[in-house]
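Problem 12. The chain below contains 192 residues. Write out its predicted structure in token notation.
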Amino acid sequence: MQSAANGWNIARSPWVDDALSQFKLMFAPGLISELAARHRSEEDTVALKTGARIRAGECTHANLVEIFDWKTGGRGRSRLEKNTDEEIADALHLAMVAKTERAAIAVLTGLNGVQVPVASAILTAIDPERFTIIDFRALQALNAEHPITLDFYLDYLDECRRLAKANNVDLRTLDRALWQRHAADDHGHGQR
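Solution.
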């Protein structure tokens, strides 16, 4: 399904209406910008610059590792290292040219060590206007508990787009607010 207003091509599951009902913002929407402003964005800046290099054609192992470490703090990197440089370059290129979000996530999760949350971080770094990051922190800020599958991510992405549009913010601002809401409860600990 493609929205004429924003051009996003959303490959949603057939039960999306049921899935979306499980999301509930756990703070006043008016706090989105304030919470996002408290987020330490230095690390985001590095990841987004790395994503821009990938977007420019530098589909390298080093660039993938930089984004992987941003998302995971380096946890699980040994599994990522099982991929060849050629596999990484191919997956990054295919994800960038994918016509649907489903295809972009699916190709990245074909890499060793990359599950949906990491794939969402990679795609967010590459195209922050189209994708957002999913993790347990953001889900807690939306009062949602669910195994993070590809279909659930697509529902989550659609809900984040709806929330961002309704509150006149971009996806990165919303993501920073969701993450910061959890970090405030967790006294600021944890990885991206």
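Discussion. Residues 150-166 form the longest helix (17 residues). Students who got a different answer should revisit the alignment rule from Section 12.3.
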